[in-house]
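4.2 Preliminary Data

To establish feasibility before requesting continued support, the project team ran the inverse folding procedure on a target of 336 residues. The structure was first converted into the token representation described in Section 3, and no sequence information of any kind was made available to the design step. The complete token record follows.
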């Protein structure tokens, strides 16, 4: 991480007339393809389902989860990869996902399996709304994905899909800004809409030689950096999996921490985790009521020519108004 800090701090610019420091290493970027993060479909919980397991896929009909990811990668054994592709292609045309987002996680570009995944899952009667790409480490791999999607479009008629990719190594994290810039650039006229970043904690720990602990302090810097980059490009930031799916208190704590940090959702590996996660990443009814009342009073004060004012014991100004507006917008997207 030394190189990261050296790069960041070498680019600190201090203006002599003020005391504000601007970190030019991560300025706010413009993702012209997305008007705002509010326009992106909510992914409070993304649930992984092995692509070859018909029984588990069928169970989705009884779940209220934002996003179901039919997996071709880590959740599928090497001798089941072909089965996973074929089952996903077949079931996509007949299964009723209702309000659940239908996503597919392909194998990594470097695995040599990604092209077969794409050609198969994008050739059925219905293809995924969202494509998730693991272990993405360079702008060249984004270019590769775009070219393969063009090829798929010519051969299968596949249209534009949403793109979410995974950060799972030190290289990926340190090069993340450049990778995102390329994704935004290609998405303007390409066949994907860049919508989010996912933090792959276990692969990341393995890559840097860290020991995973219960409170995940060894991952704090990486998680914060991913949030900064994601938000600068106005895309979603999806937090790490809580591996012990039976540990409800630990899951609640992890969700609350992630939401406070700025993550917009979390990966889940068991259906029982879904309601806990989606509640944690949703504004509470009390918070929504607070936000709506604040917005109403702010407008009243503006009409009277007044600026900041006190509301429920707190001084209210423009930054808090923006926070309130965001809470209301997000609450309107949820179907719970």
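Position-by-position output of the design step:
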């Amino acid at each position: 991480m030394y190189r990261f800090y050296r790069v960041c701090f070498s680019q600190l610019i201090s203006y002599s007339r003020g005391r504000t420091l601007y970190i030019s290493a991560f300025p706010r970027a413009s993702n012209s393809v997305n008007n705002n993060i509010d326009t992106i479909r909510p992914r409070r919980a993304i649930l992984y389902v092995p692509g070859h397991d018909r029984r588990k896929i069928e169970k989705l009909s009884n779940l209220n989860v934002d996003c179901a990811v039919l997996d071709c990668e880590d959740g599928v054994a090497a001798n089941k990869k072909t089965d996973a592709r074929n089952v996903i292609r077949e079931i996509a045309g007949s299964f009723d996902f209702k309000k659940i987002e239908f996503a597919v996680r392909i194998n990594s570009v470097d695995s040599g399996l990604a092209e077969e995944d794409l050609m198969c899952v994008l050739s059925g009667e219905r293809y995924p709304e969202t494509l998730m790409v693991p272990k993405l480490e360079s702008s060249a791999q984004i270019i590769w994905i775009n070219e393969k999607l063009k090829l798929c479009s010519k051969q299968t008629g596949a249209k534009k899909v949403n793109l979410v990719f995974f950060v799972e190594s030190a290289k990926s994290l340190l090069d993340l800004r450049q990778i995102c810039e390329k994704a935004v650039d290609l998405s303007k006229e390409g066949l994907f809409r860049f919508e989010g970043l996912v933090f792959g904690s276990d692969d990341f720990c393995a890559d840097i030689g860290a020991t995973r602990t219960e409170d995940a302090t060894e991952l704090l810097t990486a998680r914060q950096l991913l949030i900064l980059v994601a938000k600068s490009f106005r895309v979603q930031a999806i937090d790490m999996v809580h591996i012990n799916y039976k540990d409800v208190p630990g899951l609640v704590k992890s969700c609350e921490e992630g939401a406070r940090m700025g993550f917009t959702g979390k990966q889940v590996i068991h259906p029982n985790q879904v309601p806990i996660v989606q509640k944690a990443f949703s504004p509470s009814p009390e918070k929504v009521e607070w936000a709506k009342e604040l917005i109403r009073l702010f407008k009243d004060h503006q009409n009277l020519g007044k600026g900041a004012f006190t509301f429920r014991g707190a001084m209210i100004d423009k930054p808090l108004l923006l926070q309130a507006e965001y809470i209301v917008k997000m609450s309107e997207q949820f179907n719970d």
